[in-house]
Amino acid sequence: MFDSAFRIPGTRVRFGLDPILGLVPGIGDLASPALTLLILLHAARARVPKIVLARMVINSGIDAIGGVLPIIGDAFDVVWKANDWNLALLERHATPGRPPTSGDYLFVILCVIAVVVTAIVPLLAAAALFYWAGRELRGVPLV
C-alpha cells in the first residue's frame, strides 16, 4: 500500500500512499519512518542477518534523504520504493538458514564507500582552500 498501491493508467509506473502523504506537511515526513521502523523491528525479531538489516536501514535512509525536498522528494518517493524492497528482503531472509547474498554485502559496502567519499571530499577541498589562502597571505606564489 505504501509504495505500489496505485498505477498510473497507460504506464507501468506504480506509486502508493507515501508520495501522496508526503504532500501534506508533517504527516508524510512521519508516516514513512514509522512504517520503516515497524518493518525493521519485525526483521530484527525474525533474526534477519545483520548485513541485510544494514541494507534495509540504508534503503530507508536514502528514502528519507531523497524525500526531504518538497515536490521533488515526492517524485523521488514514486521511484525509490524502500518499503517494498525492505519487505522483499524481509520475506527472503526471514526463513532460517537463508544466508545473505553477495549483492547484500556489495550494496552495503558501496554505500559505506559513498558516505566516506562524500565526507572526505569536502574536507580535502577545505584543506586545499586553506593551504592556498595561507600561501596567498604570505605572498608565496602558487607556481
Describe it for me?
It contains 6 helices and 2 strands. It is an all-alpha fold. The protein has 2 domains: 96 residues, no CATH class; 43 residues. Strand 1 and strand 2 form a beta hairpin. The longest helix has 37 residues. It is extended and about 65 Å long. The N and C termini lie far apart (61 Å). The model has no long low-confidence stretch (mean pLDDT 83).
Task: Describe the SSE topology.
Blueprint: E1 6-7, E2 14-15, H1 17-22, H2 27-45, H3 50-66, H4 72-79, H5 82-93, H6 102-138
Antiparallel strand pairs: 1-2
Helix pairs in contact: 2-3, 2-5, 3-5, 3-6
Counting helices, strands and paired strands, the structural category is mainly alpha
The fraction of residues assigned to DSSP E strands is: under 5%
Query: How would you spell out the order of helices and strands?
Result: EEHHHHHH
Number of domains: 2
Main sheet, how many strands, which sense, barrel? Answer: 2 strands, antiparallel
- The proportion of residues forming helix, as a percent range, comes to 55-70%
How would you summarize this macromolecular structure in one to three sentences?
This protein is mostly helical. Helices cover 69% and strands 3% of the residues.
List keywords for this structure.
69% helix, mainly alpha, 143 residues, two-stranded antiparallel ribbon, 2 domains, 2 strands
